Amino acid sequence: GVGPWLPFQMFAAGWVGFFAGCLPPATGRREVLLVAAYGVVAGLAYGFVMNLWFWPFAVDQGSAISFVPGAGLGENLRHYWAFYLATSLGWDIPRAITNAVLMVVLGGPVLAALRRVARRGAFGVPVSFAEPAGDRAR
User: Is the pTM of this model over 0.70?
Assistant: First the structure.
């Protein structure tokens, strides 16, 4: 849904797509395993980024997992890491495993379909603009 977490969803989803495009080229089984490994990393990273939207407001001040205004970056990173381990890792690990399983099972057919579309789609054809036939008669 739409809420205060939406910008974080957009950033996280954009980063997942961007870094997927940065994966090195591979073929065959190696490609599927690479995408599956990336699914694990992306699943964990997505949850890590998504927690940032509410972490400063979700925990009462003074706890070992709360955001401390005015504290150094290192201290707040330690607190955030503890917050992530306590609240999100239990959800993010199943998401990462599900990503990997789906990539191993469906990765080959999906990649083959995407290659076929790229081959047949003529996405590299240059666009040229010409005057409409009716304008030449004037």
Answer: yes
